[in-house]
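Progress note, sequence design subtask.
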């Protein structure tokens, strides 16, 4: 299958698609260049001497999870440049039909609306194509930019969880947000 088969969203400015091994140099560049920027928000450091080995595993795992409907890890591309990622992980089917969504944008591209645009495109995909019912987000209180993405997209704040996720070796508190398929489709005018 060609690369276009794995494009899940497109706007005038960005393309959202599954990463493949050809994207390894671009993914490495983006993570290394943004290590200081991303360190407070991501679980693992990027300047590990085995980074290429870790990223190869990450991309291969993303392909496998895509094929087994467990997760959808997407690159956010502006032209040929990887400017971030948005991922829907821990896909749960059955009576739940839920995913957890996380995202990041390169520091040089913050403040331009790329994060809400990418998250919105990903929500269009998971609700319309994957037929999920609910998407959950967890945002640290120290991350006002991510909370602003939730506000811009009118994602409902559902609560606060103490020591919810381990980031940088510490258990960190998170605000919890969620949106349901019918809420999102009504807001975006998506057909069922």
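Output:
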């Amino acid at each position: 299958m060609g690369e276009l088969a794995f494009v899940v969203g497109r706007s005038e400015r960005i393309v959202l698609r599954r990463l493949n091994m050809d994207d390894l140099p671009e993914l490495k560049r983006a993570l290394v260049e943004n290590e200081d920027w991303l360190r407070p928000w991501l679980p693992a450091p990027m300047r590990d001497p085995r980074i290429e080995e870790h990223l190869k595993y990450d991309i291969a795992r993303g392909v496998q999870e895509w094929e087994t409907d467990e997760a959808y890890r997407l690159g956010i591309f502006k032209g040929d440049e990887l400017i971030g990622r948005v991922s829907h992980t821990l896909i749960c089917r059955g009576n739940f039909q839920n995913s957890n969504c996380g995202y990041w944008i390169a520091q040089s591209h913050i403040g331009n609306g790329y994060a809400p645009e990418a998250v919105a495109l990903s929500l269009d995909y998971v609700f319309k194509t994957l037929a999920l019912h609910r998407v959950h987000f967890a945002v640290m209180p120290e991350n006002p930019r991510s909370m602003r993405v939730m506000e811009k997209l009118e994602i409902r704040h559902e609560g606060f969880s103490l020591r919810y996720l381990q980031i940088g070796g510490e258990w960190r508190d998170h605000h919890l947000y969620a949106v349901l398929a019918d809420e999102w489709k009504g807001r975006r005018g998506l057909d069922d």
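Residues 139 and 150 are 9 Å apart (CA to CA). Work on this subtask will continue into the next period as scheduled.
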